[in-house]
Task: inverse folding
């Protein structure tokens, strides 16, 4: 009887089969993956079907991995069946999402639970340690404004008699709750619903792609909030410079808090632009805009803005091409740039 030479399997940090070697240590095969599990490089013949994150692969047959409770599609970066465990306050209602949309850090060997559990809970809005605020990696925050917002969050967390604890702190006032409050203020009492959430999910993905951050994490989402929301930065500045107290700035809950959480969920769940590229017609921008802004006023008058709410049409939601057109007009002659011909160059029609 002749025994076959042993094969040694080497994995990456997610447990994915990456290399095999023989008894001398010589490489016999190699396999590399994209972030979401598609195979991007192979060398040799890997003698196992347990590949990405150590799960059984039926990708050659019908494009899916078997994750015990569910099947997973690496092309979409999502499960093929809905989760029957809804324990996540941020992404829990997206029952097809995979590992909090952070496949570089987490895995889900059971098909029902992101692991490591404690780290997943911190990132998805739960606070496993009831005695402290959500601990994030401040070195991943891309600006001082983002770090200031995090400091403001920790101060609000410590003030447990604040309405934010009474309203939203049943499971701990999380960093995601804080961001939802800020996005609610940003909407200035209007209730345009899911359109704003979709716009911010798209915008955050594009912005983080340009800045080298991950919008699906608390660090990336907070960095985007700091870059986008003048209202959040103003409130932070008032408190941190001592000009106002927290109670002065946050004297009552914002209107439509649920819409703020919709924005947080959209940012947290939106795949990166490398997975789901933006189209020029995708919702991308919004704002509580006074019609003293002549460019936007003229765009509305000429039917170049499709989504708006509020008295006097002062709350706008813009598509990607409309947003690009608006900012180009600001740099190139203002209202003189707002012509049908120029608009068609950006948005067609």
Result:
């Amino acid at each position: 009887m002749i025994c076959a030479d042993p094969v040694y399997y080497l994995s990456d940090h997610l447990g994915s089969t990456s290399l095999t070697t023989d008894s001398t240590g010589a490489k016999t095969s190699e396999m590399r993956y994209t972030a979401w599990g598609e195979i991007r490089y192979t060398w040799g013949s890997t003698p196992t079907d347990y590949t990405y994150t150590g799960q059984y692969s039926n990708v050659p047959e019908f494009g899916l991995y078997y994750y015990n409770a569910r099947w997973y599609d690496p092309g979409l970066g999502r499960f093929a069946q809905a989760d029957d465990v809804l324990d996540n306050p941020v992404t829990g209602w997206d029952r097809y999402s995979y590992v909090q949309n952070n496949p570089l850090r987490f895995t889900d060997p059971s098909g029902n639970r992101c692991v490591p559990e404690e780290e997943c809970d911190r990132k998805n809005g739960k606070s496993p340690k009831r005695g402290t605020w959500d601990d994030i990696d401040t070195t991943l925050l891309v600006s001082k404004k983002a770090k200031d917002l995090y400091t403001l969050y920790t101060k609000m967390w410590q003030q447990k008699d604040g309405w934010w604890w009474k309203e939203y702190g049943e499971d701990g006032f999380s960093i995601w709750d804080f961001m939802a409050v800020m996005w609610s203020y940003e909407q200035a009492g209007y209730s345009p619903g899911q359109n704003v959430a979709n716009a911010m999910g798209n915008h955050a993905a594009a912005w983080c792609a340009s800045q080298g951050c991950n919008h699906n994490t608390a660090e990336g989402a907070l960095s985007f909030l700091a870059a986008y929301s003048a209202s959040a930065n103003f409130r932070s500045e008032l408190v941190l410079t001592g000009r106002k107290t927290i109670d002065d700035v946050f004297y009552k809950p914002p209107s439509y808090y649920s819409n703020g959480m919709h924005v947080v969920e959209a940012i947290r769940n939106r795949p990166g632009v490398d997975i789901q590229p933006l189209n020029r017609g995708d919702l991308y921008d919004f704002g509580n805009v006074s019609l003293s802004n002549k460019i936007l006023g003229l765009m509305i008058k000429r039917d170049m803005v499709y989504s708006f709410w509020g008295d006097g049409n002062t709350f706008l939601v813009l598509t990607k091409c409309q947003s690009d057109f608006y900012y180009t007009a600001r740099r190139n002659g203002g209202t003189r740039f707002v012509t049908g011909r120029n608009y068609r160059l950006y948005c067609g029609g």
Summary: The longest helix spans residues 194-211. The two ends are 75 Å apart (CA to CA). The first strand starts at residue 8 and ends at 11. The chain has a mean pLDDT of 83.
